[in-house]
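Researcher: Good morning. I'm working through a list of sequences from a screen, and I'd like to move beyond sequence-only analysis. For each chain I'm collecting a predicted structure so we can compare shapes side by side. This is the next one on the list. No need for commentary yet; just the structure.
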Amino acid sequence: MPEVVQNYIDSGYSLVRTRELQIQLVDQYKSDISKYASTRAFNVRSIFEQIPVQLEAESHRFIVSSLGEGARLQKYEQDFLWLVNAGVGLMVPQVTEARSLLRGQRRRPPLNYTSLIQACSHHGIPAARHALSTLI
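Model: Good morning. Structure tokens for this chain:
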């Protein structure tokens, strides 16, 4: 992504070449998913491609059932974690109110995504990383 940002600045804030580089970057992400996710590649890529579509919806949440009939988080949990472990996504723990956690509460929360926050531009072009959270 730094190359895309630098190109945007160097080109006098032209979006034409910047958009081309963004598309190339997303294509590289897809290629890496196919190469490194092995048997999970189809599911991981499906999730990756659905992120911008899901976040453009009114609820701004990732609805797991959109991945297929009968889809449940338990089936796709490892695929979401693959994106997190690959550095493409960030897991955001579910919170009910904004407050500092006590020292004993700072352990890793159970796998429960709160809201899928999009850190990418329109139509799935990552500006930084996808923050993965609330899944229904």
